[in-house]
Specification:
Layout (H helix, E strand, L loop, with lengths): L14 H16 L29 E10 L2 E4 L3 E6 L7 E4 L2 E5 L3 E5 L5 E5 L10 E5 L5 E3 L2 E3 L2 E8 L9 E13 H12 L6 H24 L6 E2 L14 H9 L3 E5 L2 E2 L4 E2 L9 H4 L30 E7 H15 L9 E9 L5 E8 L4 E5 H8 L21 E6 L2 E7 L7 E2 H9 L4 H8 L4 E4 L3
Helix pairs in contact: 2-3, 2-4, 3-4, 3-8, 3-9, 6-7
């Protein structure tokens, strides 16, 4: 999501250890989440038991916390337990910090003692098997500066395809955390909201983030994908474990609560700042086969939103060099195979369509020769900030185009862009949520403002 804070990355264990580890795993597997009493003024409807998950138990999610790595270092506890998923035995107990790499024949673990231990592959099938990492004892594993309370699995990269049965890389792998949803959520909310904001805003964010995560979990499982969520703004920014007291309380207060529409979990999009008028999901993302969820009524906009005025990006202006911006438009078009890859030189852009609330959803971009090209509002925002594989430098905060609600004027060699808001503008506005919370509105009232027609349901207890 559009995070606010982007304002302001072997030998066998002794037999006794193996017995202890097996007992520890058995305890973990059998342990069920404890039902926490709801606190504060969080919304709840105990009459509703969701059939979405078919269970009253808290689900777990699979979060990709690092991608296409050739090496990671694991720290945190004194020892790390490593084993190959699907194989009995072969448990490795390695002292931290542990450097882990992959070869065509094994996972290689180099521990603090200097000893190198290997989890060798037996047969071709084991080359694609994940390596499981767990902490021995109560401490969490630390990877790339994040404390991760779940089980870590290293998944070999699939070369050149999304087919899970495709060829696997000898060296590259992904880092995926398997973690209970209620343990995952505080690490999202702590990154998505400003720490001093009102607790009611945190409750709103908890319900929206839980709904989004559950929706994406179900979708990824149906598609046979190897993880559910990214730990970046591609899904929801995730910090790992957090001590933020409001994030922790908000998750406790709203345990299991989700937004639903017509009996299914709503994909509850949210962004930093609406800029005063909301966007519709059907205008921003695909709606064809497999993406029908973007047609859900509660995410098609909610009208004007005067509550985002406190955001520093409620209104904004940036200036860009016309030559470099044209280059980004071409690079974006080339990557997406859009006609705008042929634009000669940017001459201007005008609104080609709006949603029912007056927010632009399509633009006509004109070249100096008079040829014009159409892009959606979100595509234009992406194109203006495009880096991709083009080798173009990343934009900074001073030159970033913050939303697709904008006006563009070319004067000489400079493009003047004036816009509203930060992010895609669909669903909950974080700055607007905080303003309404300060006005004394409840989480339920705020959610119904941003997702009209949705219902609050309890997916599990």
């Amino acid at each position: 999501m559009e995070s606010l804070l982007r304002w302001a990355e072997v030998g066998h264990a002794p037999a006794a250890a193996v017995v202890f580890i097996a007992a520890l795993w058995l305890f973990t597997a059998l342990a069920e989440p404890v039902l926490l009493a709801q606190a504060g003024g969080a919304p709840a409807d105990p009459r509703v038991r969701s059939s979405i998950l078919g269970s009253s138990l808290e689900p777990s999610v699979r979060v990709r916390v690092a991608s296409e790595r050739t090496e990671i270092e694991v720290a945190g506890p004194m020892h790390v337990i490593a084993s190959l998923i699907g194989r009995d035995g072969g448990v490795q107990l390695v002292r931290t910090p542990v450097k882990i790499t992959r070869t065509a024949r094994s996972w290689v673990l180099e521990g603090a003692s200097g000893r190198t231990r290997a989890v060798a592959f037996v047969g071709a099938d084991e080359r694609r098997a994940p390596l499981s990492l767990r902490a021995l004892g109560p401490d969490m594993l630390t990877i790339a500066g994040k404390d991760l309370p779940g089980e870590i699995r290293l998944l070999p990269d699939i070369v050149g395809t999304t087919d899970p049965l495709g060829p696997v890389s000898d060296t590259k792998f992904h880092v995926v955390e398997h973690i209970g949803l209620e343990t995952y959520l505080p690490g999202v909310i702590a990154k998505e909201l400003i720490s001093g904001w009102d607790i009611e805003a945190f409750r709103v964010q908890a319900i929206a983030a839980r709904s989004y995560a559950l929706h994406e979990r179900e979708r990824s499982m149906n598609l046979g994908q190897r993880w559910d969520l990214e730990a970046t703004e591609l899904d929801q920014v995730y910090a790992g474990a957090t001590t933020n007291p409001r994030a922790l309380q908000a998750v406790r207060d709203t345990r299991g609560m989700v937004l639903t529409w017509r009996g299914t979990v709503l994909r509850a999009y949210y962004s930093s700042t609406s800029g005063g008028r909301s966007a519709s999901a059907k205008d921003v993302w695909p709606t064809g086969p497999g993406f029908e969820f973007n047609l859900a009524g509660p995410i098609q906009g909610y009208g004007s939103d005067e509550y985002s005025v406190d955001s520093p990006l409620h209104r904004w202006t940036v200036e860009r060099d016309v030559t470099s911006l044209t280059r980004r438009l071409r690079a974006f078009g080339k990557d997406r195979e859009f006609a705008i890859r042929s634009i000669d030189r940017l001459a201007g852009a005008s609104v080609a369509g709006t949603n029912e609330f007056g927010r632009p959803n399509r633009y006509r971009i004109t070249g100096s020769g008079g040829t014009w090209y159409e892009l959606s509002a979100e595509q234009l925002r992406m194109a203006c900030n495009w880096t991709g594989s083009s080798g173009l430098p990343a934009v900074d905060r001073k030159t970033r185009v913050n939303s697709g609600d904008l006006g563009m004027e070319v004067r000489g060699g400079t493009v003047f862009i004036r816009g509203r808001g930060f992010g895609h503008g669909v669903g909950m506005c974080q700055y607007g949520t905080q303003k309404q919370a300060k006005m004394g509105r409840t989480a339920s009232e705020i959610l119904m403002h941003y997702y009209p027609g949705a219902e609050l349901s309890r997916a599990y207890y």
